[in-house]
Amino acid sequence: MLGQMMHQPLLIKNILAHSQMAFPTTKIVSRTGDNSIQSHLIGDIARRSAQLAHALDALNVQAGDRVATLAWNDHRHLELYYAVSGIGAVCHTINPRLPQKQIAYVIEHAGDKLLFVDEGLAGLLEKVLPLVKNPPTIIVLAGTTSPLPPLNADADLLNYEVMIGDQADDFDWPDFDENTASGMCYTSGTTGNPKGVLYSHRSTTLHAMQVALSFANALHEGARVLPIVPLFHVNAWGLPFTCPLVGASLIFAGPFLDGPSLFELMDSQQVTSAWGVPTVLTAVLQEIKRAGRPPKGLNNILVGGSAISLGFIDDYEDLGITVNHAWGMTEMSPIGTQGSIPASSRHLPLEKQRHLKKRQGRGIFGIDMKIVDQNGDEIAQDGKQSGELYVRSNTTAAQYYNNPEATAEAFHDAGWFRTGDIANIDATGNLLITDRAKDLIKSGGEWISSLEHETAIMTHKSIAQCAVIAVPHPKWDERPIIIAVPTSDFGDDKDSKVRAALFEDVLSLLGVEFPKWQMPDALVLVDELPLTATGKISKLRLRQLYRDYFGDTNE
Ligand code: AMP
């Protein structure tokens, strides 16, 4: 027997309409490329999105067309999210930190019809466009008074504000199937070309609701939320949808993503919650230490994208700022878990609770997870045995866009997505990522987890950042070495004795937890570690740089 309830399609336009009606004082504050602050009410954004929808119509954008963005976080980018999806087209966000060839690849692969580019990124686009066979029409995201940047391609150049300026500010948003594609994002950080994930109105709306449920301590009416995570990658973790849905204001940082600028913005805009990857939130922490105080009103941060250390958690929580931890992937819209302390563990000594925060947490509502062994067979969730993590949900991709090879590899177990993360899950459903499958180190036929080593090394007071990587070895196939950035108080001490003493110290720290054969063979100190396009430490690049550390093993 079927239920007898109405069926209303889950469409993104409803989020904006609801926000405008229920939370009209919600603000969207943007630091734009010229370093000025612009503030809009959610109703202004709805009206400007309507104007944009008319302009898209005038440019003959049809349902299903891909409309690309190459832009930092601000209100115009948010308007594109709503207007493009609202007319049934697909908002394809492009990561400007991708190599130029890959930007050209994604524009071509997605078949973008229009491309909206920030003034400040026009120079980059100028280099990319000659690599694209059928370049899209270019619209520059700039104020009416700004002269258009010189792009040497043949593409038409339009100005966003001029384009929407004379349009009517209401729009009869159409109804359509909730499974209609709404957004598109390409994954990065792996070898080969990026892979496209095509989100739908249904998955995006469900994700917004799930995130609201899971992070209610951060996202609520009156909260002021800073997505340091970019709108150009994985929907800025869903914040452009969840914040309006719950009446939280959005504060956008534009291109100014260094520690001092973020601190200043948080302070002046009284940000209550900041969301970002560990590298950026560590830069903010350094600024907090320099200023001798946290930004006014900052109540919590949400950190994800890479593992976090106990020191990172302590530094923030000692200031009274709650650390929320989450894990997710582009393929998962992106949030999969939330790492709060389960009620059943809140009686534990604080020391144990700290360790629990490092775990990536329990699945948010609707996410199923299983751990499988090398044969693809499910293994017990006992918090001990690690294997590859598989997931499924209404907010997880079912395939990659126009990419049968990558689809066959990641979706071969019917109904499940292979994450490529190595993890265990304990009896309370609490996930711990122990590595990326491709970052595991295989020494003499045995596996070593780089992430577990890094977590231990990061507790050393003289290590600010580190990566443990596999280096080809003539006898053991691979051996681990540590590449690390020392803390500023370690100074520029290039004295080899001091370095050797630090390595000894790190080894004795590791010796408490790990057997002798797992001990890294070397510690290399560097000034900085290479980052991926999404701000994570690029182990791929490090593996290339240190490939011949033990000599050329291909000889
Ligand atoms: P992306 O698709 O760029 O969001 O990257 C997804 C990958 O980032 C995951 O498969 C994990 O390897 C990693 N990741 C995301 N969140 C975390 C976290 N909290 N801890 C450890 N790794 C994470």
Write structural notes for this entry.
The strands form four sheets. A 13-stranded mixed β-sheet has the order 2-1-11-10-12-13-14-15-16-20-19-18-17, with helices on both faces. The protein has a seven-stranded mixed β-sheet with strand order 7-6-5-3-4-8-9, sandwiched between helices. α2 packs across α3 (about 75-85). With about 550 residues, the protein is α/β, with parallel strands linked by helices. About 30% of the residues lie in helices and about 25% in strands. It has 16 helices and 25 strands. Adenosine monophosphate binds near residues 306, 330 and 360.
Task: Describe the structure concisely.
With 555 residues, this protein is of the alpha/beta class. The protein is 30% helix and 24% strand.
- pLDDT under 50 segments (min length 5)? none
Bound molecules: adenosine monophosphate
Which percent band covers the strand fraction?
15-25%
As a percent range, the share of helical residues equals: 25-40%
The class by helix and strand makeup works out as alpha/beta
User: What is the tally of beta strands?
Assistant: 25
**Which term fits the overall shape?**
globular
Q: How many individual helices? A: 16
Please summarize the sheet with the most strands: 13 strands, mixed
- Quote the average pLDDT: 93
Distance between the termini: 70 Å
Using only CA atoms, what is the Rg? 24 Å
The side-by-side strand order for the widest beta sheet comes to: 2-1-11-10-12-13-14-15-16-20-19-18-17
